[in-house]
Amino acid sequence: MEEKELVEMVKSNFGKGDYFFTFSYPEKDKERKLEATIRDVERFIERQEEWLENNEKNNLKCIATIKESPKKHIHVFTNFPDRDLLERLWDKKGRAMTGRILTDEQLEEVTRYMHRKGHKKILLSPGIEPNDSKQN
Description:
This protein has helices at 3-13, 34-54, 83-89, 104-115; strands at residues 19-24, 62-67, 73-78, 96-100, 119-124. The chain has 136 residues and is an alpha+beta fold.
């Protein structure tokens, strides 16, 4: 996916108040294969969807990129409503850093950072469409 396409997709699905997360693996898992990482992210998205469904919340919107350099980590935009719970849903015991999106400029800046060299895979939750309007 081209950078411009990713920026437009993120801007049309996320905005002020949504979250940006960076998750990593512990040092012992640094050689984890890309296929295993993709499965981990897919399960992470599923856990968010299950929690939202069980708690009668809005549908999940989530865009994740997997980067492999210098250390494997995952960047995620999400509309998940609970920052602390989301960090706990990442069950790989690595580092979890979170931030709330405050401005459209910040949203674009973070998206461009997500797309920089080293990204290997982009995963989308079922609710993501390139031309969706923001549901904040």
